[in-house]
Amino acid sequence: METSEIVWEIKKDSIRKMIQSGKRSDGRALDEYRKMEFLENYVPKAQGSCLVKLGDTQVLVGIKMDVGEPYADSPDRGNLSTSCELVPLASPDFSAGPPDEESIETARVVDRGIRESKMIDFEKLCITEGEKVWTVLVDIHVLDHDGNLIDAASIAGVKALLNAYLPKLEDDKLIYKERGDKLPVREKPVSSTFASIGGKNLLDPSYEEEMVMDSKFIIVTTEDGKICAIQKSGSGPHKREDIEGMVETAIRRGKEVRKQF
Amino acid sequence: MGGAKTDLELIKNGKRIDGRKFDELRPIKIEVGVLKRADGSCFMEWGKNKVLAAVYGPRECFPKHTQNSYKAKLTYRYNMAPFSVDDRKRPGPDRRSTEISKVSREALEKVIFLEYFPRTAINVFVEVLQADAGTRCVALTAASVALADAGIPMRDVIVACAAGKVEDEIVLDLCQEEDNFGSADLPVAISPRTGQIHLMQMDGILDEEEFKKAFDMATKGCLEVHEMQKKALREKYEKIGEVYGNE
Amino acid sequence: MKEIVVPGDKVDGKVESYVFREGNNAYSMVLGVMDKKEGYDRIVPLNGKYFPQVEDYVVGVVTDVKRGGYVLDINSPYDAFLASRRRYDNGAVIFAKVGDVSEVRSVSLTMDKQLYDGELMEIMAVKVPRVIGKKNSMVMLITEKTKTDIYVGRNGRIWLKGGDIEKAKKAVLKIEMEAHTDGLTDRITEFLK
């Protein structure tokens, strides 16, 4: 249900008060994630896909592969392109139209996590050096917005890539119905999002919590415990000690989440 | 359409390429109320189609100058996810989506009691997550259920289904291969209660006899799907009743 | 098991609300439950926004100050206007009565009373009658067992203060979820023990 701004102000106060006393309206601990559910291969026609349910947030990622020319500065490597649609059915706040700054930020942060972790072996995606390479197209389609779209999109993207395959390529023609090789992947980046509310940093904010937060901090970590992407999103400033604490938590959480893979 | 040439045997021994009889629908699954934020929603699987419909409204109509003092403003947005089709579709509306959105909105305009909600907007959004021919029918059928789920007053739960011509046979509910290589496609939406037609389009070539046969077949298909719509809507609430007690 | 009706289903000619007539027949307009108690049939919708009716009591929030009065958000596609000499700030929670609804759905409120320091919750407006109960029986049951002050707006907004407020809120949410079932009063009494 849509609520006017002033009514939100009333809700904000009670939510902020609760969080100061260490409680969240859904009973979670400050560092607790909502229940996560994965429906892999949700779109069998795509080259890879995964629907993620994170609490009531639902994000679907589809992977398509295409053949094209390499970039001039990387003639022997394939390409990655990530985009995100915040379609209007996912939230009363989303409207139809070209991508706004939120959808672009979501796409670019998810992309950085995949790209900088070196998850995809781009050299193996070269068909003919200087002429033909594979392009991996990651499309994030948000279906239901109850907060923390970036973590949901990131894990959906990673899971979709882990199960993706190249279509068959015969004499320059793509035969989508036939599966070729598996997409060469070698990493599992994990994204952790913290919402900063009155000095407290909580993991996996719900939509309500995102409405009252001062800012967000997103950290993506790799299998060997390194950081491959960071994004501070929103205007509220962070303390240095807090950031170091969040990084430690994100690395620890990354290891736990990967066990589920 | 266009009746392109193919080596595929679309009809063999009275059966179609996917084993169906000429008047047989693809398998259909309908789920009601699957989204948290939307006021009403419906997810449908129809053959290999996967379609999600959601409704917001009646809600305040923005921009204010587009408000109508006598009735609600209805919008319908049909959109395909980039990964829903074989050749990735660039995000954003194209001409085909715009046309489908228009005729679908028009199908609903006389069914919804728009005059009960002056100055508001009722927004219908449909996302095709996986496409396998007939998506506009799946979309409208799901949208209809989502509108009922949202509590929007209507004269009926309308339903859509297509029939077409493949090789020399009139068949119900074309699948992707039949749509690619067939010679006619006729999507129809009806109000089952009155029998009136709220949407009809055709492309391809049909003589008068064939048209009547296809029209008849599509209508029968609509009525079959309508029973499934009603069942899905009732089931959502009957489940809660079973859990919490009956008298 | 109560009967569920969908838009277009034929219903008994005696049903008055949420039906439309064509020829000699009456049909349901909405997805709802047929309530066949007390010798008359009526349709209770299972979902829908709040549409103000004259005589309804609502819980609104002041969102704008105008000459001679205030604009209130009443959790409806339509805003409401309150002509009042009392002083309210933006964000004030007001319990008031719907005095008039014009043809273009402009809503006028009257008999305003400010509610201080409580908590606001929102449920589906169609479920409110169940929360109130016959002759206020349900809301009085909750107040008695939790000692919470409760103002229930027909617009789905409920204001609570004091007592075991968490239990009262949970009871309200339980009623919202199970509103269309039978035996609810007993289950709520059990829950509040």
Instruction: Give the H and E element order of chain B.
Output: EEEEEEHEHEEHEEEH
What is the arithmetic mean of pLDDT of chain B? Answer: 93
Give the low-pLDDT segments of chain C: none
Beta-strand content bin of chain B = 25-35%
Q: Give the CATH class of the largest domain in chain C.
A: Alpha Beta
Helix percent of chain C reads 10-25%
N-end to C-end Cα span of chain B:
55 Å
Structural description of this entry:
By secondary structure, chain A is α+β, with helices and mostly antiparallel strands. Chain A has a single domain, classed as Ribosomal Protein S5, domain 2. Helix content of chain A is 28%, strand content 34%. In chain A, the strands form 3 sheets. In chain A, strands 1, 2, 3, 4, 5 and 6 form a 6-stranded mixed sheet that branches. In chain A, strand 7 and strand 8 form a beta hairpin. The longest helix of chain A is centred in the C-terminal third of the chain and has 20 residues. Chain B has a 5-stranded mixed sheet. In chain B, strands 8, 9, 10, 11 and 12 form a 5-stranded antiparallel sheet that branches. The relative contact order of chain B is 0.18. The longest helix of chain B has 37 residues. Chain B is globular, with a radius of gyration of 19 Å. By secondary structure, chain B is an alpha+beta fold. The model of chain B has no long low-confidence stretch (mean pLDDT 93). Chain C has 193 residues and is an alpha+beta fold. In chain C, 19% of the residues lie in helices and 37% in strands. Chain C contains 4 helices and 14 strands. Chain C has a 5-stranded mixed beta barrel with strand order 7-8-9-11-10. Chain C has a 3-stranded antiparallel sheet with strand order 1-5-6, with no helix packed on it. In chain C, strands 2-4-3 form a 3-stranded antiparallel sheet, with no helix packed on it. Chain C is flat. The interface between B and C is large, with 38 and 33 residues.
